[in-house]
Amino acid sequence: xxxxSKGKLRKIELFFEAxxxxxxxxxxxxxxxxxxxxxxxxxxxxxxxxxxxxxTLDPKDPEGIPTIKTVAYIIGGVDYYLIGIVLxxxxxxxxxxxxxxxxxxxxxxxxxxxxxxxxxxxxKLVNVIVVALIVSLFKQMLSIEIGKLSDIIYISLAILLIxxxxxxxxxSHTKSSExxxxxxxxxxDSVEH
Length: 193
What we know:
Blueprint: H1 2-22, H2 28-53, H3 65-98, H4 105-108, H5 118-143, H6 149-192
């Protein structure tokens, strides 16, 4: 009798573990919607750039309003592309982390979309988001009319903060690269001994 109840409990345990393990497939929803959102943003970016390219420029005033609008459209399109890239990296990363490794990527021998951990995925996303913010700030600065000294100070502070964040990201990336190289070397040394 005791052996029979242990067998029943073990079956329930295995069923529950399988249920928990298969819950990871709910991650397919954010993967699919991230891919669809990336496609939509790439389409919007393309339309934005096309709108900038089709504007008529005034040869007598090469730095006039049409030129500023053209640059704003093109920068806006690049911004949409960058956000689309963030969504692509997110979709590929969480799919590989939670569902399965994408086999077809080995044919291309590319590791740009590969993320081996949540920390690595987060790092890639942060880097692209910072670049998108830089592009977005640049687009906003095209339309800012400087009327007083405080406007120049705010713009300078924004540029300084972005520069500092980019520098800190570079430091973080350099340290993590050195750490992974150091740990790989220590692993190799321990195998040799």
